[in-house]
Amino acid sequence: MPRALITGVTGQDGLYLAELLIAKGYEVFGLVRGQNNPRVPRVKQIVPSVRLLDGDLRDLPSLISALDAAQPDEVYNLGAVSFVGMSWQQAELTSEITGIGVLRMLEAIQIHTRNEMGRVRFYQASSSEMFGKVREIPQTEATPFHPRSPYGVAKVFGHFMTVNYRESYGAHACSGILFNHESPRRGHEFVTRKVTRGVARIALGLQDRITLGNLEARRDWGFAGDYVEAMWLMLQQTEPDDYVIATGVTHSVRDLLDVAFHRVGIGDWDRHVVQDPRLFRPAEVDLLVGDASKARSLLGWKPRSEFRSLVETMVDADLAAATREMHSPGRSPDDVVRQAGGAG
Ligand code: GDR
């Protein structure tokens, strides 16, 4: 039975990846941080067979202990401070966890394997935010990076450390440059979920407005469930490499609002949306759109869900959650959304 260790197992991608690996017959371990971590119950509910280990990407000994306990064949490093907007307020913490945390995990694997790094395959969650101020459209593995946030800078550090350990120590280390990927399990702070949850609650009369930042920002949005398959495929290749994972289609926040409001029968949504300058970012990534041809030809990967059905699925899940909330006050909407994993 293959064994995998996932950092960031409590997040959207961690949950989908754990489900995928369990379905493939893996024994899955998840690293969780802190006593009474409030996100642990959600992991136990969705993937009860995952074995949770205490550890923190800021603490090298805890990573070595987790590796010694799990004895993994594959490590998926998804743990990070992942909200770009917050990374300006907490730039140092973001660098510490999202950036140097990658180095610590690579070092931990080095120590755990007694310098035979090739024994453990490593996946690093790199990000399209590394492209930042885009130099070409669409972006490929060869596009230069110019990150536009402390988060993006930290991800570039983690990315090149992964490449460096591969080239220096023969690590089977892969970096997946993933563009935005969403689902009903997405955190409320990210724009897709903020919109779908807000729209559902407006449709049910639970709130009147959604307050947003830049409506002209464009992103390449895919479904998280499709993207975790690409992570797994990368680690099954004989040669480790880096891959862009994206749909190749870009939409604006306005498009997102159109589809989400249309789903609940509201055509004219202007009166429900307020723009707040405080939600604009100090520096914005204007147009991200990825070219995943390499993943398509070498991994045989392609996205299955498209934008409209993804957004509609998220609105429907949030409608169900908000409806339950109305009928059983005190129950968190996420208790319901937790169970709604699919898209498209
Ligand atoms: P992003 O995702 O920064 O691309 O990073 P997010 O959903 O936060 O923002 C997308 C775009 O929407 C604009 N926007 C708003 N964003 C948020 N969160 N809230 C708002 O109210 C709002 N209004 C407009 C933003 O300015 C931005 O342009 C995500 C994360 O998952 C990263 O961890 C990951 O690496 C990348 O995707 C790929």
From TrEMBL:
Keywords: Lyase, NADP. It catalyses: GDP-alpha-D-mannose = GDP-4-dehydro-alpha-D-rhamnose + H2O. InterPro entries: GDP_Man_deHydtase, NAD(P)-bd_dom, NAD(P)-bd_dom_sf. Its cofactor is NADP(+). Residues 324-337 have a biased composition (Basic and acidic residues). It is an enzyme of class 4 (lyase). Residues 323-344 are annotated as: Disordered. Residues 5-314 form the NAD(P)-binding domain. GO terms for molecular function: GDP-mannose 4,6-dehydratase activity. Its EC number is 4.2.1.47. SUPFAM superfamilies: NAD(P)-binding Rossmann-fold domains (SSF51735). It comes from the Bacteria. Gene3D superfamilies: NAD(P)-binding Rossmann-like Domain, UDP-galactose 4-epimerase, domain 1. Pfam families: GDP_Man_Dehyd. Belongs to the NAD(P)-dependent epimerase/dehydratase family. GDP-mannose 4,6-dehydratase subfamily. Catalyzes the conversion of GDP-D-mannose to GDP-4-dehydro-6-deoxy-D-mannose. PANTHER family: GDP-MANNOSE 4,6 DEHYDRATASE, GDP-MANNOSE 4,6-DEHYDRATASE. This is GDP-mannose 4,6-dehydratase. The lineage of its organism: Bacteria, Bacillati, Actinomycetota, Actinomycetes, Micromonosporales.
